[in-house]
Amino acid sequence: MADEIRRLSDELARDPSSLAFLPLADALRRAGQLDVALRVALRGLDRHPYVADAHDVLARIHADRGDLERAADEWEMALRLDPAHGSARLGLGFVDFRRGNLESAERRLAGATTADDPSVAAALAHVRSALGARAAGSSVVAAPDMVTPAPAIEVAEPNVVAMPVPLPAAAVVELPQPDPAKARHLFATALDAADQSALLVDADGLVLAGSYTDADGADVADVVAAELAGVSGEAERAMRHLGLGAWTSILVEADCSVVAMTPAPLGSLLVVAASRETPVGLVRLLLDRALTRARDWLARVA
Fold it and tell me: Which residue among 87, 143, 192, 297 is the one 20 to 30 A from 207 at the CA level?
């Protein structure tokens, strides 16, 4: 198997656009090398943002790191790209189970396209058993963190290639950590065109990363960031007043551009802008991709 992992590493080195990053990242995940696996998956996603399996493998890495929120985000993205993605439904069922949302977990698992898979059937039976126990007044399932569903709800392998058995860390070259000094170009590979911008702003209206270019090509990031100071707070207050829960994104279609924004870690705000001709769905996808990049970067430099 050492030869297999080296072959995948060599293949990826020869052709960075290769999908070999999928089995490589998953092998590292299984070996417990989660930081390296994360960097391999993120680099692969830079080149293959529309591959559902790429979001699936990243979600599994986040799940193993204990970050169910990011894992759920990536599995949701996989489903947007491929509504029939059984592994993503299985993963979201796992997240729902861990959160105690048993009804939702049952719906997701029952709707998985891999429902005839023995592991999915076992997971579904486990969830239904927990539902039955809860209906009978059992106190055990009331605390989902007491349950360890991973053996029953094991995420399926990506559909692209078979996953190799994990091997020692020496088989893979360690990738460099992100350089905070290059924060201005953080989102460069997450965007698709020159008329697109991405900007990460802190709660005080200061630029954390990214850039924002106006119609004349000038970087007006500082001005835009200052204008956006307090937007997250206002959005939160409005949502509380309306009783609609937490806000997740805002999209504005203006005369010359489409602007989307979403809350980011540490109280920051992420903004993505594109030309008015850009499809709204693509702008939302760009926002999701930039948010994944921002979360990873903030986790490293915070």
Answer: 192
Q: Which of 64, 65, 28 is nearest to 44 (CA)?
A: 28
d(CA 38, CA 296): 9
HSE at residue 117, side-chain half, CA atoms within 13 A, is 20
pTM over 0.70: no
Q: How many CA atoms lie within 13 A of 101 on its CB side?
A: 11
Query: Per residue of the chain (302 residues), what is the pLDDT tens digit?
Result: 456 666 777 787 788 888 989 988 888 888 787 887 888 888 888 888 889 999 999 999 988 888 888 888 899 899 888 888 888 888 888 888 887 788 888 888 777 655 556 666 777 777 888 777 777 764 444 333 323 333 333 444 433 333 333 333 333 333 334 454 578 888 888 888 888 899 998 877 888 889 888 777 788 888 888 888 777 778 878 877 777 777 888 888 888 889 999 988 878 899 999 988 888 888 888 898 899 888 888 877 65
12 vs 14: CA distance, rounded Å: 5
Q: Residue 157's closest CA among 298, 36, 291, 27?
A: 27
- Structural domains of the chain ordered from first start: 2-171 (1.25.40.10), 180-301 (3.30.450.30)
Which letter, b or e, does each residue of 220-254 get, where b requires 16 or more Cβ atoms within 10 Å of its Cβ?
bbeebbeebeebbeebeeeeeeeeeeebeeeeeee
Residue among 27, 29, 28, 7 at smallest CA distance from 18: 7
